[in-house]
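Q: How do we represent a protein-ligand complex in a form that can be generated token by token?
A: Start from the inputs.
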Amino acid sequence: MLTLLSSSTNGMVIGAMKAAIPFGIGLASATFMAAKIALSPEFSTDKRIPIASLRPGDSSHDDEYNEDPDAFLERCEKEYGPVFNVYLLNMALTVISGPQAREVFTNESFSANDALEELTCMRSYFDTGRKSNNNYNNRTIPALIRDMITRFIPTYIPKIVAQMEKVIDQELGYCPAQRGAKLVEKPLLVFQKIIANATALVFVGPEIAKSRKIIDTFISASKDFGKTFGNGGVRASKWRTFIQRANYKLFHPLRNHAQILAEASMSVILERRRLEALANEAGIEFEQPDDVLQHMFDDFDKHGLVDLEDICAFALIISGAIVHTITDASTNMLYYLAAFPQYMDRLFQEQQQVLDTIQAEREQARQERSREGKPIGDDLDPAHDRDLTAAAIKKMIYMDSFVREVFRFRTERLGIMHLALEDVTLSSGIMISKGSTVIINTRPAHQSSENGEDVTEFRPWRFVGKNKAATKVGMDYLPFGMGRHACPGRFIVVEQLKAVGALMVSKYSKIEIQDPSKTKMALCTHIGEPIDTGLKFTSRE
Ligand code: HEM
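Then emit the structure tokens for the protein with protoporphyrin IX containing FE bound:
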């Protein structure tokens, strides 16, 4: 789900030594354990793979990589070719670049899930709440995302947009130029609220989502989801993992969140059942509520879910991923809009053109119905002519290109680790031995000529008319991986990012970075890392 690296700490065992001491473990034993469980390097046993040289004084490649990822990788690719070993994030990693990266994504002997588990406590966190489907390599979460989220995106989008708009108006409001731009010092917190409210609405419906406690639960679940990745990037530390797992055993956070949601949902679900029974008795068709919880409830046995608490735990795992990643990505996208203000008006114009076309088509359809003497139904209500529907968002090709370019430009150069579950020989003859971890070098992919010219520059329209939607994965675009395990969440992510972008450019004519000297840093932050400067908003007149 997440692939980005942390630049926040360096040194091989320092992170482990600084970690807090868990309950019940004294200082002496804690120090002993920290030393015991610090990671030892485990490169592939194939000695032909070169180890990248270290700069004098460096004990790992972290500093050189973080100072200038492109320069570091260019140096290594030139000196060692597409496959080489590095010490990064407290790990011994084999970097794979170019066409052999495809072999990693498409070979089931490489597992991103297992690499993630080595590095994060994701599965342990899930196990604090879910009661079913916790066996190894279970496919329930991707299946639920496909069946409960992606399938219903067209019906969710108008609700998401309406809710986001409501919260944007509450949080940012109208800030005309004559009153001075409105400064938001921590836009991430505002966007967390916006995305959590919209996500809660489509997950549990308006009755349950109106509760403050429930919104807080969605936010907490997303924070806990983010914490499994070490808040703002991952760095291997068996010590951190140990403490985190111990905390999970003591505090079982997902179970707590699921219990709150189950308690709030029970009466609503029972009431829905009662109304359905009444409708059936009266021979009237019951209009099924359209939210994720209801869909999961209707299909719980298909996915092997055992009770309402279990359903709520899975809902909060998926919503946690959504709120965490979309909050981060949409906040980051705003910094791009602020850094490249010359593109705001083109995006706004596109939106107006798309809505003008849809409005004209609907008007024509109404006239046709009138001519045929048919009633104009709710589906053609003029009040909804200019709604941001999924169909309207699909037509916004400039916005789509903008989103794809942000991902291409921003995505960490080294990311998406995979653990070798057995010895694998790549087409070059290099052998990646069982138990070693590879990391994908996305630089050659994202800066290949497949992406056009000026690949080291941010050019938001580079994909317009190129049949390269922001969800379309391939060897030239790897933020969501590729192959069988390509991210199933990317459809809702991109759809919602486009909706956020459309709302923001229609409401605000100018977005500025509070401290422009921090622009470069803001554009390159890692997932989940806070950006150290705010944003200023000026409304459209
Ligand atoms: C900015 C947002 C996101 C990014 C950049 C991202 C990226 C990725 C990447 C790189 C992978 C690994 C693909 C591989 O194994 O090669 C992945 C897998 C996955 N992602 Fe995401 N993701 C994002 C958001 C989400 C969201 C919101 C969800 C849930 C709705 C999600 C659910 C998953 C799942 C379940 C997998 C595992 C798929 C499998 O094993 O078949 N992701 N993601």
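The longest helix spans residues 308-339. The first strand starts at residue 83 and ends at 88.
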